[in-house]
Amino acid sequence: MTISLAEVSLRYGEKQVLDCFSLTLPAHGMVCIFGPSGCGKTSLLRLISGLTAPDVGELCGLEGVKPAVVFQENRLLPWLTVLENVLLVLPDGDAAEARRLLELVELGAEAEKLPGELSGGMQRRVALARALAFGGDLLLLDEPFTGLDNALAKRMMSLIAELYEGKLVLMITHDKDLCALADHVYPVDGLPLTVLEA
Q: Which CATH number is associated with domain 1-66+136-198?
């Protein structure tokens, strides 16, 4: 699977987010798109996930692809426990699998708590566990390690690399330290979004 954007443009009102933007992503590995907040990284991820359509241009390689997403917001249901939030995306209701994933993100002891009882970093890891439970061919991560210290973020990246070996993981971040752990880094600058180098 090779994903490419060809001459893609996207505008929100008066704001030009992408202007004839082209990029080809590798078929697999951990890819980091690095740039400052507000430079259009999230819009790029929304295009690739299919949540936003470009005004013009073409996205290729996404036919039949099932993406899993960790959004910038955790999007946890506050009235459900941590375990129940992960179970939401498991069609067979496999509680053992949900607990296994919570153990992998180091939250096994928090399974019966409500999201509001957790720190921001813990909630982030619940969102990650839910995306991992969803599975898919492509993992899209929008600032996935907000609230995690550097050592924990590195452990989570190693976990993702192991579980998604042979598949593509696309992470957008403004944290330069995390980029050092990626296979490919694409720095970007301000709007409209431009890849500076690969």
A: 3.40.50.300
